[in-house]
Amino acid sequence: LTNTSISPLMVNWANMIGEQIINVEPVVAEIPADATCQFTIILTGTKVGQAKVELPFKLDGIDDYGYLHVEADIVGPDIEIDPSTLDFGLIEYGEIIEKIIKIKNLSPIIAKCQIQEVNKDQSKSLISLPNGTDFILKPIEVYEMPIRLLANEEGALLEHLEVIIEDGKTIPVEITAIIQRPSAYISPVELDIGESFLNVPIVRQIELQAINGLPTHFQWGEPTCIDKNQCLIEINPRQGILYHGKQYFIDIIFIAQQCGILNDDWHIPCYIQNAAQPIFLKLNAVMKEMNVEYRYEQNIFQYDEQFTLDFGRVSLGQKSCLELAITNLTDIESGIKAKIEKFKTRPLSVANGRKTQNFEPIDSDIGVGFHLDKSESTVYPLPPRGTTTIPLSVISSMWGNYTDLLQLQIDGMDSIKEIPIRVHITGNPIKTYLSTNKNDKSSSLPIVQFGSMLHNSLPIIKQVHMQNISHIPTRIDWVIYDITEDTTENSKLIELIPVIDNNPFDSFISDTTITENNDELMSQTTTSTKIASRGNSAMLAHSSVSIIDDKPTPLIKLYVKPYQGKRSSKTNAIYSISSTTKIVKPREHFYLDITMTPRNCPRKDYPMKCTARIIGILSVSEERQGSPSQGFHRPIYYEHEEQIEFEMHASLEMPSLRVELNDDDCNVNEVEALSFAIPVGK
């Protein structure tokens, strides 16, 4: 207040008590003349709102009171809330999340506060205040108030709280949240395994991806299907945690156990923790068993197809080879064990080993062996989609037709594949230590040369060294044919040999030949023709005809063979042998004695060549002839294509004498007689 007078002025303020309490300090004061005095007005509001008060004061010397008009807005305590919007963010359904809001009393007075939920639904209470709803804040005090969210309802949450301050403001608090269950998806949802094979693991990869930002716990369950024996399923990993935005790959290992198409009900559940229901992976597959194909001589055969490994014609004692290629048509890692059913081989000893042949037949009485380069216990590897080759060889020491089985045990296949083997062994086991005459182009046969002799010379004996190289006793029946230049002999085509009681050599008839004109007999017979060759010689046809009499015995069998010459006479023959039948022991060396008797030549009046062919007809005992059911069969006698053959050559000359006179004193006019007595044949 300013005293504008020239004298001091005493001021006395009144105190006011009511809805507002007003005090002035100092209450009493003297204001000097022409001076100013400052007073402090203290207003204490007891009621919030607009306050208008006339505050009285008394000046000495003045009877009336003066009034000071006072206006004020009375407000309550002021607080600050941080944050004013409480965002719980993305939370998992069922979780209980608690967060703190800070309430600060900005006023210098005590603030009595109460917090409450706006439009609260008692049926679904999502917000709770663990410390209660009422609290008091001292001046400048900060209070941390917990707010708990019960996430028991999916969806977006928007709740409102109010902080009510006694004699103060009502401050809103907004609460937001997104409540979700963990969720994920599978890519692809339908896994096509494609072609699979029994017991072969197939690995396929799928992707699990979290749909929302929640940590997603997953665990794979057991397949839901009727027939769980169709396949085995392995999953790696079976459980884990998915995070949003990160790829998670799962290995599905499929192992087929049965052939066929996988049932349509094969689903594998993947359980997501706290999810309403699992997600499913569907499986499709075509399951197959092990399968192979065979390649032999540029021909391809399927597993179930029948075919024969045919060596064809193989010379006795020679090694012949063929190869069987087997291709794996699947992804199965497999192997093959191979073995021969009957006619197997064994290794030769080092002493008996040869550079080109290191094995021999196990059963020497059979005389043939089929050889595999690996033992029966050794496995030929057969990689997936790969090919392996099995070499097969044959070696023999006896003629005949042989059949056997190559047995293949293929891993992954229950049955044993049996492939027939066939070979026709030609030739004979009798080794003849003779050589062919390179100068004689008319014959490719070995020749026994007797040289030149006089007609009445003494008989000459020559020996032919031979050996039975087989392990089977072999019978040889010798037949000698005289080779003449008789034109009537040249017109003969075939020779008919009768067999009585399976022995043709006790009933030879020298004139049992059928000439070219005898077509009627040939048309009435049924023949089976076999072809044989020796060097560059012409092809020969051998046939046989069986004629059975009305009586049960004897059995008469006729052999029809190409005509090779006139049978040598049993008496007074030029060429003869000591015995027409010989049984040669296994591996036996023997000598054939051939006698050439010049004096038996029917013509003695001119020089001539004596040529003959000797044929050894081979046979074995009945039990060694075999039968197709035994896997071997040996033709005998003339049915056996290749016999022992060689020729015998000799020249018969007439006796001759040449006389030369060397006498210079001889009188040519005088005739002298010379007389010689020369016995014929000496």
TrEMBL record:
Annotated GO CC locations: cilium; cytoplasm
GO MF terms, alphabetically ordered: tubulin binding
InterPro entries assigned: DLEC1 (IPR033304), Ig-like_fold (IPR013783)
Pfam families: Ig_DLEC1_6th (PF23316)
Domain of life: Eukaryota
Any Gene Ontology biological process: negative regulation of cell population proliferation
Protein name: Uncharacterized protein
Organism whose genome encodes this protein: Rotaria sordida
